[in-house]
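Predict the holo structure. Ligand: iron/sulfur cluster.
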Amino acid sequence: MNSELTQIIKREAQKLGFSFCSISRVVSLNNEEIHLKKWLENKYHGEMLFMENHQEKRIDPKLLFDNAKSVISVGLNYFIKEINNKDTYKIAKFAYGKDYHYIIKDRLSKLIDLIKEINPDVNARAFVDSAPVMDKAWAQRSGIGWIGKNTCVINKKSGSFFLLGEIITDIELESDQEEKDHCGNCSKCIDICPTNALIAPHVLDARKCISYLTIEYKKDLPNDLKDKFNNYIFGCDICQDVCPWNIKSAVPHNDAELMPDERLVNLTKEDWENLSPKQFKDIFKNTCLERTGYKRIMRNINHIRSTI
Ligand code: B12
Ligand code: SF4
Ligand code: SF4
């Protein structure tokens, strides 16, 4: 067990701007495997076929990383007061600034550099959505938070508006305690979801979720959900905005890389509708919207317009 190194890693993670850094011991995720299998069998993943791949690695990190012993989970707070609460199209808060994949990967690489400076024989790899790793399960096991009924990881002191990443390593670090569920009798997220995508506590049918439809889904949007998008054209924050843990505890971040571009802040509905491919490219370079691309964002806008 390496207590001193554990503390150094946690201090450095904080310096790098992560709000959370907690450790879990590598184990096989047997409970999660049952839920994942059922979710896939029910086709709740829709056309996200990458979720079907490497299931065994998703469950057991030892198959992904030789001699894996510890998972270092980090959380990056992206909470900010809504910029587009006026009468315009909305994008989810996580996508206001620079693409979080770049931010987290870059900061985790710095953390690995530090670990290797102290102990050059260590093997360590950083992950942010880039490999079959169950971010939320590890965050829960390391005590960062619990997986709420809306299926997001919630921290008691700051809510759920944070992104996750991890380092898997072959050093044995001091692990933290798993977090308990604090949803209790609440069901606000399930009750408010406009498309009934939360079909049961902790179970999300992505095929109905505005986030999936606006970000991941590549075909024409389904007509039966036409008037339910609440002006969202990229992602959806509705089931998080209503969560009492966010209302009570979410604190705005102060992270320059996550701050929205001024031009995005000022886009009116009309600006969005008339956005050219060139303007889109300029404003959304290196953001998460760039991945979804101009065509699908315009598809989303036109879908909402066709309901008015
Ligand atoms: C696929 C995916 C999606 C899909 C499906 C979401 C989902 N719930 O799985 C879609 C496109 C819809 C999506 C949307 C969003 N996503 Co997403 N997504 C992922 C991804 C790539 C995999 C998630 C996964 O493994 N799903 C598999 C299913 C089986 O897991 P699950 O639904 O979470 O179920 C778990 C529990 O609920 C429980 N469970 C399941 N069934 C049951 C049944 C019972 C009875 C019980 C008790 C428990 C239980 O076990 C499961 C395993 O732990 C992760 C990144 C990663 N590599 O982990 C990001 C991730 C989960 N997404 C993230 C974010 C930010 C979002 C959005 C908020 C973005 C937005 N604003 O639009 C929304 C939130 C929507 C929501 N309410 O969850 C963050 C979440 C951070 C956090 N604090 O939790 C992640 C971790 C990305 C990251 N690196 O930060 N996402
Ligand atoms: S993200 Fe939106 S559509 Fe998806 S489950 Fe939450 S409220 Fe429903
Ligand atoms: S709204 Fe209520 S039930 Fe849903 S995640 Fe938050 S505390 Fe849990």
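The CA atoms of residues 46 and 207 lie 5 Å apart. Residues 32, 35-36, 39, 48, 51, 92, 94, 128-129, 133-137, 147, 150-153, 160, 162-164, 202-204, 206, 209, 211-212, 215-216, 235-237, 239 surround cobalamin (ligand 1) (CB under 6 Å).
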